Amino acid sequence: MLDMLFEQVAQARLLLEHATDMLRAAAQRGEMDARDAARARDRARAALRDGQLPSARIWATFALALLQRPEDARARARALTLLGLAAIGTAAPEEGGRAFAEAIALFVSLEERGADLANCRYGLAQLRKDEGHFDEAANLIASAEAIFEEQHLPGDVANCRYLFGQIRYAQGRRDEACAALEQALAAYTEQALHIEAARCAYLLAQVKADQDRLAEAAALIDYALPIFERLDAPIYVAHAYFSLAQIRHDQGDVAEALRLFAEAEAIYSRRGLLPDVHRCRIGRARIYYGEGRLEEIPVLLAQAETIFRQYRLPVDGARCRYLKGLVYHDQGRSDEAARLISQAEEVFLREGLEIEAAQCREALPLARSRNVPSHNSSLLSAKPR
Q1: Total domains, the chain
Q2: Which of 21, 170, 240, 315 is the most exposed place for a label (fewest CB within 10 A)?
């Protein structure tokens, strides 16, 4: 099955390259012109708005094939921006980075200092954040935000504040993240940008939960959840349920946490989002471990590690192994427990998650002990979010 899918992807790429060559040749013969390129760009923008990234990439590529003349430089830079945006969150970040870099160079050569250049830097910052180049992303956002402020574009300024908050949160700089996200939320609310405000409130809730400001975190999710429901955004509804489940667990409301995990899992399952399904199951398994219900955990974790490996999610896989290791420790299987917890620690260290790595180090001596184990729920005190 997998081989067949890879073959279909390869054939699709060949077809795209062939069609692009044909368009380029037609443009050189004068059979297609800037109006055709504009139509292709319009379709790329529409596809991006609808979240259809593969279609956006195709239409942006077609537009670029038709924009080869020196006088097409500005239109080409805008098409390159669309191609870069279509790469965000996909498996083609290198293509997006090249597109944004070329677009920025063109805009600079055209002495463009307005929103077009800022949008490029904003998009490249998103890519660099996803690649883990946080300082570069922060610098790009600062330069984009300055232009948006000069252009009096408050919505774009708020987007920059939001992305800056994401960057600082990923770096573990929670106070800075909190300040940026609070500024973004205030701006979104003032401009009645409801879905943006809800997404920002959701992330801000995670930051505050990590700061143990649980009541504030819960209030933010309670604010965001009705907006997600009203705007028919089921994935965000599920994310809100998941985060609220973690908060209720931290507050000691185990029954409500289990209900919310189950609600989130049901939505993820209907949408075929397998990693999120298994994150919900790990959440439930953590609760069961705290209650000493060890016999229910292996069923919940049976497929999780395989799914996380398939989707290349090493941190989720490590959290699964760590929890399995604790269960094995309680069952007296010391060698297996030590192996799993040691593997989890390696991943946490590699990914810069020092709190969870430290928890592994605390658990390892117990796991290696061949004494009759005693259940210790404090070994799950770290809060993966």
Answers
A1: 1
A2: 21
